[in-house]
Amino acid sequence: MSIIHEAAALLDDAAREHREIDQFPAGHFTLAQAYEIQRASIQRRIERGERHKGIKLGFTSRAKMVQMGVDSLIWGLLTDGMLEEDGGSVDLARYIHPRVEPEVCFVTRRVIDAPLTSLEAADYLEAVAPAMEIIDSRYRNFKFSLEGVVADNCSSAGLVVGAWSRKFDGLANAGVRVQFDGRDVLVGSTGAILGQPLRSVVQASHLLHAAQMSLPAGSLVMAGGATAAVALTPGLHVQCRIGSGHGALGCVAFTTR
Ligand code: OOG
Ligand code: MG
User: How far is Cα 98 from Cα 78, in angstroms, rounded to an integer?
Assistant: First the structure.
C-alpha cells in the first residue's frame, strides 16, 4: 500500500474506533501528500455511504493558531456523518478527546468554481448560521504538526449548525459567547475570523481553485473557530450565541452525554 492509503486507513480507523494514534514521524509526508491523505480518508467514508457536505477552514483566527502552535490556514472536508442536531444530545463516546469551538457556517447558493473577491462572496451564499465545531484530533494528546493535522482532515469530527438567516451585514464584528451550563467559557468576536468571516469564503474559493476542485451549490462552509477550543465532558448544556439585538445570528446549542 502507498504511504497515502496507509496513513488514510490508519486515521480513518482511529476515527471510527475512537482511539488515538501516535503522530507520524516528522517528514513522513509532505503538505501536498497530507491533503492527498485527507482526500483518501474522506473517500473511505464516502464508500461507507456518507455524503460530501462541504468544507471547513482551520486556523483562520490568531486564537486558534496560538492554542495549537500552527500558523497556516488549512482546510478539510465535511460529510453528513459529522452533523449533530441543534438542540440535540451529543454522545461523547463517539469521540476521543472532543473540544468545542464557536464558528460561523455558510451555505452556498451557487457552485464555487473560481477564485472570488470579498465583494463577490455574499452573492454565492444562500444563508449564514451560528455554529459550533466539535474537533477531535486522532493524535495522542491532541498534538500535531501542520502536515499531521491536514492529513487528519483538520481534526474534523462533528458540527452543530443553528438557524439559517441572511444576516450577512452584522458579521464583521459580532460578539461570540460559548456557555457551559450558563457559565461563560469562551468569549470573542466574529472579527477574529480573518477580520470578517466572509473572508473565509474568499479563502475557500482560492484553496478550491488551487486544488482544481469546485464546491456544489448547497454546500456548507465552516469559517473557522473565532476563539480557542475548550474540552467537552459529559453532562453539559453547551450554548453558543453570536451577535445581539436585531442583527444577531442567534443561538445554537446541544447537551453532552
Ligand atoms: C485543527 C482544526 C482547526 C479551526 O476552526 O481553526 C479548526 C485543530 O485545532 O485541531 O478547526
Ligand atoms: Mg474549527
Answer: 17
